[in-house]
Amino acid sequence: MTTLQRPSERDERRSIASRSGSFLLGGDLPVRRLGFGTMRLTGRGIWGEPADHDEAIAVLRRAVALGIDLLDTADSYGPEVAERLIAEALHPYPADLVIATKGGFLRPGPDRWIEDGRPEHLRMACEGSLRRLKLDRIDLYQLHRIDPKVAMEDQIGTLLDLQRQGKIRHIGLSEVSVAQVEAVRRLATVVSVQNRYNLVDRHSEDVLEYCTRESIGFIPWYPLATGNLAKPGGVLARAAERLGAPPASIAVAWLLNKSPVMLPIPGTSSVRHLDENAVAALLALDGSLMTELEELGAAS
Question: What domain count does the chain have?
Answer without folding.
Answer: 1
